[in-house]
Design a protein that fits this description.
The chain is globular, with a radius of gyration of 15 Å. The strands form three sheets. Strands 2-1-3-4-12-11-10 form a seven-stranded mixed beta sheet. The protein has one domain: Class I glutamine amidotransferase (GATase) domain (Rossmann fold, 3-Layer(aba) Sandwich). The protein is of the alpha/beta class. It has helices spanning 13-22, 49-58, 62-70, 80-85, 178-194, and strands at residues 3-7, 26-30, 41-44, 75-78, 86-89, 100-105, 115-122, 126-134, 138-142, 147-152, 155-161, 164-167. It is 27% helix and 34% strand. Bound molecules: glutamine. Its EC number is 4.3.3.6, 3.5.1.2.
Length: 195
């Protein structure tokens, strides 16, 4: 069975665990660096990226997470997790992990729309996927190897680059597990390729 780790330092951890169990994966809540060895793919959940970054540094996750990415093990960043993956952040001189070739802007949907839902069409996943946006970031620009998977209006809200998947919204907050299933498939394909 495919084992999906959820980085469990802060944020929407339980909800992701439930979503991935429903999507047919075995789930590990990753609280210690050593646990990265026992998983096939990792989810960086939504929450608060600056808090998550502080905890990543505090618990020594920075280099191990970069090594995980360098091994081409799949990573899925949702909302704050997307911010952690991005190579470029609007208004910041340094990225966090900086492993995915995208430019991301934090809290970019404005005050009056701090939280909203929208029906999205997600390439390779399906139609009418309800995206829950909570103080969400969006992807401002993508590099040439990045495939845009979903837009909301004129903004990019989901993208994939090889083993990296990222979205602005919280897919784990609805009962629709199609995006979790998509990530499980990415992980299964990548595990076969590396055998
Ligand atoms: N605004 C948050 C941040 O910058 C992300 C919000 C979320 O993950 N729901 O980290």
């Amino acid at each position: 069975m495919t084992t999906i780790g959820i980085l469990a330092l802060q944020g929407a951890v339980r909800e992701h665990a439930k979503a991935f169990e429903r999507a047919g994966a075995e789930v590990v809540l990753v609280k210690k660096v050593e646990q990265l060895e026992s998983i096939d793919g990792l989810v960086l959940p939504g929450g608060e990226s600056t808090t998550m970054r502080r905890l990543i540094d505090k618990y020594g996750f920075m280099e191990p997470l970069k090594a995980f990415a360098a091994q081409k093990k799949p990573m899925f960043g949702t909302c704050a997790g997307l911010i952690l993956l991005a190579s470029d952040l609007v208004g910041y001189s340094e990225p966090h992990l900086g492993v995915m070739d995208i430019k991301v802007e934090r809290n970019s949907f404005g005050r009056q729309r701090e939280s909203f839902e929208a029906a999205l069409s997600i390439k390779g996943v399906g139609e009418d996927f309800i995206g829950v946006f909570i103080r969400a970031p969006h992807i401002v620009e993508v590099g040439q190897d990045v495939e845009v998977l979903a837009m909301h209006g004129d903004r990019i809200v989901a993208a994939q680059q090889g083993s990296f998947l990222g979205c602005s919204f919280h897919p784990e907050l609805t009962d629709d597990y199609r995006l979790a299933q998509h990530f499980v498939q990415m992980v299964e394909t990548s595990s076969k390729e590396t055998v």
